[in-house]
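Weekly structure sync - notes
Attendees: PM, LS, DV (DV joined late)
Agenda: review two folding runs queued last week.

Item 1: First target. Sequence and structure tokens pasted below for the record.
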Amino acid sequence: MPSAEFYISSTKYSLQERMTRRGKVYDVVFRIVTLDGYEKQKKLSGFASKTLAKEGYTDFITQKCELVKNNPIKKKDATKQDLLVGDLIREYLSTLFNQNKTSSIYAKQKIYKTFVLPYFENTKIKDLTKESLYRWQDSLWQTKNARNGNFYSYKYLSNVRAHFRTFLGWCESRYGFKNNFIEVEKPKHRVQKTKMQIWTREDFDKFISVVDDPMYHAFFTLLFYTGRRKGEVFALTPNDIKPTSIVFDKSLTRKTFNGEPYEITSTKADKVQEIPVCTKVQNELKSFEGGSPFLFGGEKPLSDNTTRRIFRTYCEKAGVPIIRIHDLRHSFVSMLIHLGANLMVVADLIGDTVEQVTKTYGHLYESDKREIISKL
């Protein structure tokens, strides 16, 4: 056998099934150790069958790997002290593939690439002092979005900060470097929170009355009266539609690592649910001749950008407040709360947790507030 390119300490692997626009494919995922001692996840992607995937795995470990016991390289402390933040971030992200969904890893990768690597790419991990982390945070809070020239929201920057702190916690756990970020206080939030944008049923009725495209009429009706995430509706197939219910067991994401324009994954909460739908949705779907394999779009799913543009056009035509498509989810939950629905029922219908519903969606209508106050 030619010189090995990697070490492996186990011949265990897992097969992962996913949908692409060319149909179902299989990926093989397993652990390798590089010749300089780094343990990483390895993925061989895009096999047409399980048999071909197994053969691809066998060929790879036979031709490129040497089977050894544990990690054959013991790193010296001096080498450990020279570890760079950029290299560690890439290693950290590689460990997440069996723990996080692809879309989540994609989002994290974007955060590190945009906000952390430009500042700390070639910094030694041991040099991340409390002072240097404060300087990074000060710079972060002064960063503007290159796309629109506006400062990032406090919520978004807090999310960036949280991801970096999690990474440094991983470095502490894995390599023993002190996480100095725990001593860095987060900037105070002095900006008034914006009010959640929602539609009433009257707003939606006014909007849907001007939607003259049958597919978008059904698409927006389903979003408003189910409260499901847009990706879950994009991923629907004709087989998911039942006489009085809809099966939600998958989602569509555009955040992929394999060059494909989209990928079908599990739902955000990894749930498989058959959810009852109201008469309006039942009647809408009975009269709508959906496509295949995608109910909305046919051979390929609807485009995000096109859907947003069409939604805004109809909003302007109807003269209703212009909200985000995701705000139809907020509107559905607010409508259920207005009708007196139990929060556990609400959470189950939208595929979320009670805690998240209480935190994010528990906004009563103005009329509900006035009615409650009038009873005091």
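Item 2: Second target, run right after the first with the same settings.
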Amino acid sequence: MAVLVVNAGSSSLKLRLLDDRDNTLGAEDLPDVDHLQHETLPEAVERLARADAITAVGHRIVHGGAEFTRATVLDDAVTARLRDLIDLAPLHQPKSLAALDAVTAVLPGVPAVACFDTAFHATIPPAARTYAVPREWQRRYGIRKYGFHGLSHAYCAGRVADLLGRSRCRLVSCHLGAGASLAAVVDGRCMDTTMGFTPLDGLIMATRSGSVDPGLVLWLTEHENMSPHEIADALEHRSGLLALAGTADMREVQARTDSGDADARLALATYVHRLVTAVGAMAAAAGGLDVLAFTGGVGENSVTVRSMAADRLAHLGIVVDPAANDAAVPDTDVSAVAAGARTLVIAAREDVIIAREARRALS
């Protein structure tokens, strides 16, 4: 079964065609997903279809709400329910559904499966997912921690188990990219994560603020007369590294830090501070730490972020070998020999998880 994986991110759309053994038969990366020409996506799908017969399509859907906790075969009713969740992930959900519509138009007879970023976090215990807000809000609006990047965290956890030769461990997986989140995973089950009701929560990201005092939002509405839309736009698109350093690109932040730029130095230090304190929280949720795994664009490629984080996490047994860290190519172990916990660098492969979940749902 050749599965076409459709992964619509916040700024790009990735297409991957995988065979039964998860080998990549073809790939297409389409930038600027907001402004894709009508012909671009169909042409890319048709090019991939020439490589092999597409027998199923797996779509990454960011938000499945409380209802969708596993991959689900798509039909009109399911698609309608997913549209109802747009308000919970306004930066991502519309793009995923637009890609779904476009691919379905090209492959109308091919079965499609929705694979949810929230599903991996369905095992989070009630104490970790519950907010101390009025019960009426919880019942009426479904307010709770959902968590995101679950497809990436799920692959990372599985790959760590493969590399270590054991499935039982206490893992903190660090998905660090334009979006960023951590997950506490015990023996393959998620116990907590840093993103919450929306993908805006948690760590500092490229253009997203991560966690802020909710009183700040209330203060801005009351004292500065800012509208919810204005605040949302600022926190989603004009915050994070971009606000602190003037660039959303971690590579540029590090280059400016090396050249003595004070704003970049503060941005990097603040990013790492949020990261390591969140790792500590996730380690507590997991009941300890056996493995710390870095994945995503920053996690895989930033020697500096990994090194700075390790220096702050020595009390949890994290010690990296400088030479191994400098030369790291995923998937690899960069731990020092005497480290009390392992540090791994794992390539992000959401496409593999999506293809596997699509096959499982259709079988």
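Discussion on item 2: The longest helix spans residues 262-286.
Action: LS to circulate a short write-up before next sync.
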